[in-house]
């Protein structure tokens, strides 16, 4: 009987639990089904459209040498040559101003040789300006032509070129056109990987001034240097100058701006091959190996890169074939360009790993030697200005790495215009008017450079896209 009562009690408890759960479920279901009052609190915010600042460009100024020209003060940088400057705008009513920057590291600077800020302070947002400079020198220890596009200051840029081996002198130029001090870190790489370079970080570049540093002070005896420039506070326009002297013979000079950021594609427009027979005769002589046309490649990651090199000739306009090279990860390599007859070419590198790169070519004619560093050029699809600095036989080079034909219209401020069809994977060129500023309009993206060549003179520069206008931002009080 007691056992029976236990069973009945247990069953009753179980039934009670079930009834309780059922009631709870009913209450929950009711809570779900009965609409509750809702209240949404939105975060207060306001969209603010900053007023875009006018474009500000920096022209690097004179070239440099580590002496005063008389062979003394070899630890002091002094200016060499007077830059010739061309500037313009896509609005003919805009007044362009040129203002010299302070140059405390140039012991011989005057306004005509100083780095220059080029601005259009009264221009409306969206108005484009452009400028470029060239410097031709002919002295016992420095000779050749150096040209460069006047660039906007950037927070991050890559310089690929130069050397600090015997007879090679290289300078890093940091120009700050802004109103605030720039704090700059240089990270250096070469054929043995990343370099330990004391003094290369925490560099102060005062507002409205240029600092100049000998690359040998950071990277002595480097055959293939690459410099990563990162700036905070004010931004800087970075460039790299290289001079060569072989024994007592000057071997050329070049002033080059940044190449494109690490990417799996690098496009070079207007790679000029000239004087191949004369160069071939000199390559085996001591100190002349760097006359060889080559591409310098740095692979930032640890993995090796397989690079497909595609070459197109301006004379035919179309691709001339491709070949494959390899570059080890983490170090800088120089890879020879295959034998090419004299002419102008576009060179495209397609890599399995992100790379930074530039291409070097040389000229040897009438006993005079010069060289050029071609930086990779960003494909451009919006209207762009193409300034033509003074120099011998200026030529605009157009490279189309896309899959469709691109029609490019080039128009001067005087109204002269020409339209050029650039085939997919091909390249075309146009002789340019000296000291002109062209407006380029493209049906699809092309890379653009400007080149110069003559006996003993070779140089060029790429056309970079303008920085974007300030975009609206949302502010939360």
Structure description:
With 477 residues, this protein is mainly beta. It is 8% helix and 47% strand. The strands form 9 sheets. Strands 20, 21, 22, 23, 24, 25 and 26 form a 7-stranded antiparallel beta sheet that branches. The N terminus is likely disordered.
Secondary-structure map with pairings?
Blueprint: H1 2-33, E1 46-48, E2 56-59, E3 63-65, E4 78-80, E5 84-89, E6 97-100, E7 116-119, E8 129-138, E9 143-149, E10 151-152, E11 156-160, E12 168-176, E13 182-190, E14 193-194, E15 203-205, E16 209-214, E17 226-233, E18 237-246, E19 249-256, E20 263-273, H2 276-282, E21 294-298, E22 305-313, E23 319-327, E24 332-336, E25 343-365, E26 368-375, E27 384-387, E28 395-399, E29 406-411, E30 417-422, E31 427-431, E32 437-442, E33 447-454, E34 457-462, E35 473-475
Antiparallel strand pairs: 1-35, 2-7, 2-10, 3-4, 5-8, 6-7, 8-9, 11-17, 12-16, 12-18, 13-14, 13-15, 13-17, 18-19, 20-25, 21-24, 21-25, 22-23, 22-25, 25-26, 27-32, 28-31, 28-33, 29-30, 29-32, 33-34
Features:
single chain, 477 residues, mainly beta, seven-stranded antiparallel β-sheet, 2 helices, 35 strands, 8% helix, 47% strand, disordered N terminus
Q: What radius of gyration results from the CA coordinates?
A: 30 Å
Helix content: under 10%
State mean pLDDT (0 to 100 scale). Answer: 88
* Uncertain segments: 1-34, 68-72
Portion of residues in beta strands equals over 45%
Overall morphology: globular
Largest sheet: 7 strands, antiparallel
Discrete helix count: 2
Span between N and C termini?
A: 77 Å
Instruction: Count all strands and give the number.
Output: 35
- Helix/sheet category: mainly beta
């Amino acid at each position: 009987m007691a056992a029976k009562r236990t069973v009945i009690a247990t069953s009753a408890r179980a039934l009670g639990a079930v009834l309780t759960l059922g009631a709870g479920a009913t209450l929950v279901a009711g809570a779900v089904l009965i609409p509750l009052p809702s209240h949404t609190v939105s975060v207060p915010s306001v969209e603010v459209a900053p007023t875009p600042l006018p474009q500000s460009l920096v022209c690097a100024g004179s070239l440099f040498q580590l002496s005063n020209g008389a062979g003394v003060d070899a630890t002091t940088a002094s200016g060499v040559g007077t830059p010739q400057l061309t500037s313009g705008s896509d609005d003919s009513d805009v007044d362009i101003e040129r203002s010299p920057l302070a140059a405390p590291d140039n012991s011989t600077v005057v306004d005509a040789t100083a780095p220059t800020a080029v601005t259009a302070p009264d221009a409306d947002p969206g108005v484009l300006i452009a400028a470029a400079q060239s410097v031709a020198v002919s002295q016992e220890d420095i000779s050749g032509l150096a040209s460069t596009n006047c660039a906007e200051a950037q927070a991050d840029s890559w310089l690929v070129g130069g050397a600090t081996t015997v007879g090679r002198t290289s300078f890093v130029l940091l120009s700050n056109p802004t109103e605030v001090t720039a704090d700059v870190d240089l990270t250096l790489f070469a054929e043995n990987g990343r370099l330990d370079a004391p003094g290369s970080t925490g560099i102060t570049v005062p507002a409205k001034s240029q600092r100049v540093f000998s690359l040998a002070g950071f990277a002595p005896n480097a055959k293939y240097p690459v410099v990563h420039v990162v700036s905070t506070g004010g931004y800087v326009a970075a460039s790299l100058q290289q001079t060569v002297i072989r024994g007592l013979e000057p071997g050329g000079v070049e002033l080059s701006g940044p190449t494109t950021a690490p990417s799996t594609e690098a496009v070079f427009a207007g790679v000029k091959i000239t004087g191949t027979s004369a160069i071939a005769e000199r390559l085996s002589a001591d100190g002349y190996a760097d006359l060889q046309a080559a591409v310098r490649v740095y692979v930032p990651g640890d993995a090796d890169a397989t690079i497909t090199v595609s070459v197109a000739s301006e004379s035919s306009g179309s691709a001339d074939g491709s070949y494959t090279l390899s570059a080890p990860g983490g170090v800088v390599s120089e890879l020879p360009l295959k034998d090419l007859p004299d002419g102008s070419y576009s060179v495209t590198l397609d890599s399995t790993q992100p790379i930074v790169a530039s291409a070097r070519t040389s000229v040897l004619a009438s006993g005079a030697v010069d060289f050029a560093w071609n930086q990779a050029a960003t494909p451009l699809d919006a209207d762009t200005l193409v300034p033509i600095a003074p120099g011998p036989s200026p030529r605009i080079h157009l490279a189309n790495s896309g899959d469709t034909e691109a029609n490019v219209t080039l128009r001067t401020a005087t109204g002269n215009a020409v339209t050029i069809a650039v085939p997919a994977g091909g390249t075309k060129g146009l002789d340019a008017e000296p000291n002109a500023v062209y407006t380029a309009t493209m049906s699809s993206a092309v890379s653009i450079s400007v080149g110069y060549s003559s006996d003993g003179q070779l140089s060029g520069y790429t056309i970079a896209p303008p920085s974007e206008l300030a975009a609206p931002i949302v502010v939360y009080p």
